[in-house]
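Consider today's protein:

***
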Amino acid sequence: MATRKPAAKDRPAYRCTECGWTTVKWLGRCGECQAWGTVEEYGGAPAVRTTAPGRVTAPAKPIGQVDGRQATARSTGVPELDRVLGGGLVPGAVVLLAGEPGVGKSTLLLDVAAKASSERSPVLYVTGEESASQVRLRADRIGALADHLYLAAETDLSAVLGHLDDVKPGLLVLDSVQTVASPEIDGAPGGVAQIREVAGALIRASKERGMATLLVGHVTKDGTIAGPRLLEHLVDVVLSFEGDRHARLRLIRGVKNRFGATDEVGCFELHDEGITGLADPSGLFLTRRDEPVPGTCLTVTLEGKRPLVAEVQALTVDTQIPSPRRTTSGLENSRVSMMLAVLEQRGRIKAIGKQDIYTATVGGVKLTEPAADLAVALALASAAIDTPLPKNLVAIGEVGLAGEVRRVTGVQRRLSEAARLGFTHALVPADPGKVPPGMRVIEVSDIGDALRALPARTPRRTEGNRAGSSRQGGNRPEGDRRGAEQQL
């Protein structure tokens, strides 16, 4: 007797828990998102269906006849958020804001909801993580009380859709998408199926009503957005809220934006009274002092299109242990180690690798771009020889392993920001372009030229250090510095 071949509905099927891709056999790697170990069995194989042509909702038009005024951005009332969004919120747009716990997502969106509410366009704030009274206390603290801001505490998708029918808002804020679930879908809130259903229902409601939607998303311990990658594909804008909970600075970066560029960054300051935008955040990253201090150097970094003046600090200490310490804060440890090797080999600063090295930035800013290499190297050299750099000096440039100083992008924009804040001298790579008025630029081709900016004077040292320096010949780099001193 012949064995019956299993029907398609009897055979098991497999689905990726990240993106929802399905297959009839198990694979170790998803064929759609290329994630490993995410393909799991979930039930019968999908049946093959053929969809017949149906009635269209609206006839197709030539693209020139489509009314583009309906997609005009409207301000949120928060200029720094408008900068990242590309001018404001577009009606019908769905925005996903993700960030670590405690970074200030709920505080920012509650402030946006209060400022964006009006009689013609009320705002509905739905919270699934807190009670309504808890949100009210936060609104009292940050001054986010408004007559046309409606608040609801719901975790059921059907209840949220019911509130939309009652309030008819122009803006919906959902905190967060992982806490809302549909009773018609199996699975716990935050699962793949639930997030797909909740996001799909809210996106359909936003497009049909012309209502902008702000969704709060959780992140994993690696910093990526939790849930299936499908969520990021469905929404129109993906924003990342970054910041150290021990620092005041908060940054919003655009990861995806269908209505504007993704190279803009919004800066905010978190304090007891709420969160406020910073049109000029450079003051958070500088230390005001009357006299220069050894081991400090200023640079100009680019966060998106925005130039920010930041301060790099370094400290070198003699050690008795065989393996000296290397501690960094706000800087990449690999870049600092590279600058130490370049200074010792190319800059001729002896014995710097045998000392404890501590490097940090001011204000909690993170410097990851190579344009800060020259500032890091000069701060380390200044700390090693205990000689401060000249006042009102900024350093911009990437340093290679051969000791050369390479060009970086946006030099003119960086110099303009430094000149606006009152800095008068700058060390930059060759060919910097147009120099702002009042700024004196010194072009350096390698690390040796840059080290000549250090004044050739007797460093401030204790008696013990002075004796040790006379025996070992000091850590001062070789070469004549008089040319660079005359320029500075």
In short: The first helix runs from residue 79 to 85.
